[in-house]
Amino acid sequence: NGNSCSMGNPAAAKGWQMNLNNRYFKSYKHFVGTEEQTERVENGTEVINHSYSLDITATRYFNNRWSLVITLPVISNTRSSLYEHAGNNAGPSGRHSTKSFGIGDLRVSLYRWMIDPARHTKGNVQIGLGIKLPTGDYQFQDYFYKADGSTVMGPVDQSIQLGDGGTGITFELNTLYQFTHKFGVYGNFYYLSNPREQNGV
Predict the structure, then answer these.
(1) Residue 125 and residue 111 in contact, taking contact as beta carbons nearer than 8 Å
(2) What is each CA distance from 183 to 7, 80, 110, 189, in whole angstroms?
């Protein structure tokens, strides 16, 4: 996630670092609570989301304990469904896709290692506090295909919008421990507080 810091050599923890992180996710299963609606796939009425993002991260290391991280995601989403277009009874020919592409919500975070990395090289705890800015389009629109053959332009589903339209506060806790030179553990805990309840879409 672009916020790792050199723990073994404090002098090396200065300057800028650039990270590119790719993520791809496909979702097609439907749940009501913990119960899966397997009939949606069997009947061919499932909604299929393909989500790809490229996170461009620039990290400024001030010293071996403090760093500033700026992350800008570039997002490409596709959502295939029946019900949003001609309806679930339209059959395979009624399935169409809506898409969204562009930048997402920009994040700026300040991090600090709580234990001096120069003295403790096996493990550490890092705390991060930041802000998420509403730079992603939260009302992206595409064409929906209706049963009568017409098309209607409208906002794509919330699940493939590029942003949420709100300014949020982020909190992170990163931990690591190296048991041997071949085995270690790492944990990342992330929380976003976004006060805006409705964005009008």
Answers:
(1) no
(2) 16, 42, 28, 21
Average pLDDT, the chain: 92
| pLDDT tens digits, 114-145 | 999 988 889 999 999 999 999 999 999 999 99
pTM given for the model: 0.84
Question: Does residue 192 contact residue 105 with C-beta atoms inside 8 Å?
Answer: no
- CA torsion sign for 31, 32, 38, 39 is negative
Do 88 and 79 form a contact (C-beta atoms < 8 A)?
no
pLDDT at 184: 96
